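Hi R.,

Quick one: here's the YqzM family protein sequence you asked about.
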Amino acid sequence: MLNQFEKEVQSKRNDFLDSAVGFVVSFGFFMTIFIIAQAIHFFGTM
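And here's the predicted structure, written out as tokens:
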């Protein structure tokens, strides 16, 4: 027996694509923060 949400699916896209995009976006954000911090550390010690 299916419940209401299994009958009326809003999005039929593959969940893997959504989770991959979320991972890449969050990884890119933290990598950008890390690169900025390393640049500040490098140029601050010169």
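DSSP finds two helices and no strands in the chain.

Cheers,
M.
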